[in-house]
Every structure is written in structure tokens, then in C-alpha cells.
Write a structure and sequence with these properties.
The complex is a heterotrimer of chains A (129), B (113) and C (145). Chain A is α/β, with parallel strands linked by helices. Chain A has five helices and nine strands. Chain C has a five-stranded antiparallel β-sheet with strand order 1-2-3-5-4, with helices on one face. The two termini of chain C are 21 Å apart. Classes of the chains: A alpha/beta (129), B alpha/beta (113), C alpha+beta (145). Chains in contact: A-B, A-C, B-C.
């Protein structure tokens, strides 16, 4: 199952902070994490990163991993620098007040699956329902 | 829904406080790895999904009166963590699934009954 | 600071003693429960005590938390000896943190501690002398309870 970023935005009552031109992007997988080290170790390219972190570091990490978009949850206030870098690197940022549990719950119900990369980077695991 | 149902339905490995599984009701869930955030925003009765395995998660779960903690991606809770959890009466369970999948399934279970 | 007759407990905290983080705030919570303090007040004190305790452990050499219970208010006094806070304004900014990587990996150091204490308090005072230590006061009013 896939969802467009615009559909994800609607499902979560989210605001599009940057990346209005990329709302047609198809998302099939999602990864939830609050620690950048986890994202680096396990997130797969093309996924939606769901996180409570909103520092410039997280955008650069997303960029390095070819993550499709970042969804900041829990209504975390976003620093200007964060938004600026996301614009520069063309990474869409969505923002919602919903907690991570609710976000993952709703997106899972709508058909997104989890994704992890094995630490070696050579194997990938898709989790079918 | 009780923790027992959660463990059975999602194939969780329970590491301590098994006697509490049958009698502990779950009231919603919370996912997160930042302790200040969990302290400020989670609620009593939540099942807390996290990848943190160190002993401090027990203090947090105890202070917030969570139903229990589920650790994701097959990570191993430290021995200190299990010992403290046993003393505090906080069930610790482990899932092999990554956070997104596990939360999705817990969410679904809670919604369905 | 309230007078000693209202001092309910004084708890000693060792700097860098992460293994025990949360032990003092759990003790404080138990004390409040035993005294029949309302749940919503306990919830706020738990957050305040936890964050104050973690701050002492994360940044100070050692410190104490004192719990005062008066008829109209609960007071938490957290005093530590240590590096102190050079810029209090900055320290109160949400997301600002001086935590090292090890601390962040454990899930601490997100820069929300002081802000969360302030939010949960009715009265909040923070004073510090860089190189000496820090003194935090949090007062929670018990409205006609």
C-alpha cells in the first residue's frame, strides 16, 4: 500500500512546513525514531521518517540516507535553521501535534509498513502484514 | 485489553513480572525514546514502546504508572533494568519488530477491542 | 525556603550516577501518595523532581533535593555543587542542551528539562553561579486541598 504525502498530511491533520511541490511523492514505508543513531543504523532510503527530533542534524541525516520526507510529531516547535536546511536540501517536512503512537497507528492502519536495513547494509527486510 | 492479550497476539517475550500480565489493563500507548518527553506527555496506564534498554526506563515507567514497557527491534534489556523492573513491578516485554510496525499492531489491537 | 517544620525529606544525589536516576523522584512520589496528595499534583511534582534529579546527575558534582509540604503548597528545592549554568536565559530555551553524546543516547539531554520544570510549577526560581553551583526552587500550590 502506498500513500501520497498529501494524503498523509490529511490523515494526520499535519502542516506542510516545506516541500509543497512534493506532495505527490509516494510513500510505502515508515520509520519511527527519536535518536539519530537509530535512523543512521536502520532507516531505509525512500521511507518517511517519523520523529520528535527537529534539529538540523536530523535533516542532514535524512538527506544522507535519501529519506523521502520527515514528519515531526508531538507539536515540536521547529527552529528556523531546521526549516532552512530542509529547504536547501529539498526534503519535505510535515508537522503534526499528534503523538508518535497515534501517527504510527494511523499510518499503519492505512497500509504503510515498517522498514529496516540490517546494520550491515547489505540486506533489507520488508515486513509484510 | 490486558497485557496478556498483547503478549499473546503480538508474540512478545515477557522478561519479568509475568504475574501482572493477566491483571494489567492497557489504557492507550506511548512511543518515544526521549525521557523528558515521556515524562511530560505519556499517561498512566499507557504501554510504553521504546528502544531504550537501560535501567532508567523503569523509573520513568514507575513514575508515570505505565502498564508496562515494550522494547523494540529485539533489543535486550540490561540485567539492571530487569532487576529494577522486577522490584518495581513493571512488566518488560520485547518484540522483534521495529517501532513503526509494533506500534501499528498495538494500535490496531486497542482499536479493535 | 519554607521553615524546617515542613521539611518532609532531604535526598542526596551523586553526580554522574545515572544508574540511580529516578530513584529520588520515585521516593518523593511515594511520600506524596502516602500523604494523600491529589493525583494531579503528584503528576506535576513527579515531572519536576525527575528533571531536577536528572539535571544534578547530568551536570553537577553532587546535590540535594529537599521536599517541603505546607498546607498551601509543595516546594522542591534542588541545590547542587558543580559547573553551574553560565547563561540562564539560554538554558531555559526549549531544545537547548549541553549534554554529551553518551547522555543523549540514553534519551536524556533533549533540552527540555528546565522548560518542563517551569511549565509544571506555579512559581519557578533559578539561580546559578558558574563554577559554584545551581539553586532551583519550584512551588506547586495546593488550592484549598
Amino acid at each position: 500500500m502506498r500513500l501520497r504525502l498529501s494524503e498523509i498530511r490529511d490523515l494526520l491533520d499535519a502542516k506542510v512546513i516545506t516541500g509543497e511541490d512534493k506532495l505527490d511523492l509516494d510513500i510505502t514505508t515508515a520509520f519511527g525514531a527519536d535518536l539519530m543513531s537509530d535512523v543512521l543504523a536502520f532507516a531505509r532510503s525512500g521511507c518517511l521518517l517519523i520523529t520528535g527530533l527537529s534539529n538540523p542534524q536530523s535533516v542532514r541525516t535524512a538527506y544522507a540516507l535519501d529519506i523521502a520526507a520527515i514528519l515531526v510529531c508531538r507539536g515540536k516547535p521547529l527552529a528556523d535553521k531546521f526549516i532552512e536546511i530542509a529547504r536547501e536540501l529539498s526534503i519535505p517536512i510535515l508537522w503534526t501535534r499528534l503523538i508518535m503512537f497515534e501517527v504510527c497507528g494511523r499510518l499503519y492502519q492505512e497500509g504503510l509498513t515498517g522498514c529496516i536495513c540490517q546494520a550491515s547494509g547489505t540486506e533489507e527486510k520488508h515486513l509484510a502484514k | 485489553m490486558t497485557l496478556e492479550t498483547l503478549v499473546e497476539q503480538l508474540n512478545l517475550k515477557c522478561k519479568c513480572c509475568w504475574e501482572k500480565l493477566k491483571t494489567t489493563e492497557i489504557k492507550g500507548g506511548y512511543a518515544g525514546d526521549l525521557l523528558s518527553d515521556v515524562m511530560a506527555n505519556s499517561q498512566e496506564g499507557n504501554v510504553w514502546v521504546t528502544r531504550q534498554v537501560h535501567v532508567n526506563i523503569v523509573a520513568v515507567a514507575s513514575l508515570k504508572e505505565h502498564a508496562g514497557i515494550v522494547i523494540v527491534q529485539g533489543a535486550n534489556p540490561e540485567k539492571d533494568t530487569i532487576d529494577r523492573a522486577t522490584r518495581e513491578g513493571i512488566p518488560i516485554m520485547v518484540s522483534d519488530l521495529p517501532e513503526f510496525e509494533l506500534v501499528g499492531r498495538i494500535y490496531q489491537l486497542i482499536q479493535n477491542g | 525556603m519554607p521553615s524546617d517544620e515542613y521539611l518532609e525529606g532531604i535526598y542526596y544525589i551523586q553526580g554522574r550516577d545515572f544508574v540511580d536516576a529516578g530513584v529520588v523522584s520515585s521516593e518523593i512520589k511515594r511520600t506524596l501518595k502516602d500523604k494523600g496528595i491529589p493525583e494531579n499534583i503528584i503528576r506535576r511534582v513527579a515531572i519536576i523532581a525527575f528533571e531536577a534529579e536528572v539535571n544534578i546527575i547530568s551536570y553537577a558534582d553532587q546535590g540535594t533535593i529537599q521536599l517541603f509540604i505546607e498546607p498551601e503548597a509543595i516546594t522542591i528545592e534542588a541545590v547542587d555543587i558543580g559547573q553551574g549554568i553560565p547563561d540562564i536565559e539560554q538554558a531555559l530555551v526549549e531544545g537547548f542542551s549541553t549534554a554529551d553524546d553518551a547522555i543523549r543516547e540514553m534519551g536524556f539531554g533533549a533540552g527540555m528539562g528546565l522548560a518542563n520544570i517551569k511549565k509544571s510549577s506555579d512559581i519557578f526560581k533559578l539561580a546559578s553561579e558558574p563554577g559554584s553551583g545551581t539553586h532551583l526552587t519550584s512551588i506547586i500550590k495546593l488550592n484549598g486541598q
